[in-house]
Design a protein that fits this description.
241 residues; alpha+beta; three-stranded mixed beta sheet; 6 helices
Length: 241
């Protein structure tokens, strides 16, 4: 067991994170739900346009085999937040496990397409050891903003869950590089979200350059700016485009 959530030089893969999430699910299931929850397909996906969503649980089984003999709910942890804080990740996992508990027991704990968390949700998370900073529901999201309390955090700290695994996220290098360049967390998030675009504002990256032979039209792409490239067929220099 490793209770120190400190960066290491160990290579950590998505498989490592998923394996540890399954282990944490199993421990929480036995500890808090008497082992009654069905094992879900635990996934790590981007939160997409749900920018502030740290996770979700499907309302019905969405994974399974062709004949339907195996059906799994999906419990997802958002890829952007996996390295935020170990207890935040465990908070999200338990939060979604409460939803799963209510779904398999036919208890409705949300309304407004899942956005508003009602008193059924509140009562269960309080039972587990969550706390609310304000003892009243949010007008839009209801009782969703529960956080792991000190006693529950202490219990989790003693469990056989490797905290050091939770160091990587989809924000990763680009996000922290932007922070090191003086960007705010909000700006760094926007920059990291453009990772797959052609231009990442505010973050230096290698630019490609195109070169063309004016005679035969042969094209060359380079990542260096100043080159002297000779076309072997025409024996003339390529022109930078």
């Amino acid at each position: 067991m490793n209770n120190a959530n400190q960066p290491t030089n160990k290579l950590i893969t998505i498989e490592d994170v998923t394996t540890e999430l399954h282990k944490a699910f199993s421990i929480f299931n036995k500890t808090f739900f008497e082992g009654d929850l069905p094992t879900p397909a635990i996934t790590i996906q981007t939160n997409g346009n749900k920018r502030n969503s740290m996770g979700w649980c499907s309302r019905v089984p969405t994974w399974g085999n062709k004949d339907g003999s195996l059906q799994l709910y999906e419990l997802n942890l958002s890829a952007e937040f996996l390295d935020l804080d170990f207890y935040e990740t465990m908070d999200t996992l338990l939060h979604e496990m409460v939803h799963l508990y209510h779904m398999v027991n036919g208890i409705q704990d949300t309304s407004r397409k899942g956005a508003y968390h009602n008193k059924k949700f509140r009562d269960k998370v309080l039972e587990l050891g969550f706390e609310y900073k304000i003892n009243k529901p949010d007008p839009t999201h209801g009782w969703t903003y529960a956080r792991i309390g000190p006693a529950l955090k202490e219990r989790i700290a003693k469990m056989n869950i490797d905290q050091s695994i939770f160091q990587i996220s989809k924000r990763g290098y680009i996000y922290f590089q932007a922070l090191s360049q003086g960007k705010s967390p909000e700006e760094a998030t926007r920059i990291s979200e453009t990772l797959n675009s052609n231009s990442i504002p505010g973050v230096e990256k290698s630019k490609s350059h195109k070169w063309l032979c004016p005679s035969c039209g042969m094209r060359v792409i380079s990542y260096k700016d100043n080159l002297n490239i000779l076309c072997g067929d025409c024996e003339i220099n390529l022109e930078k485009q």
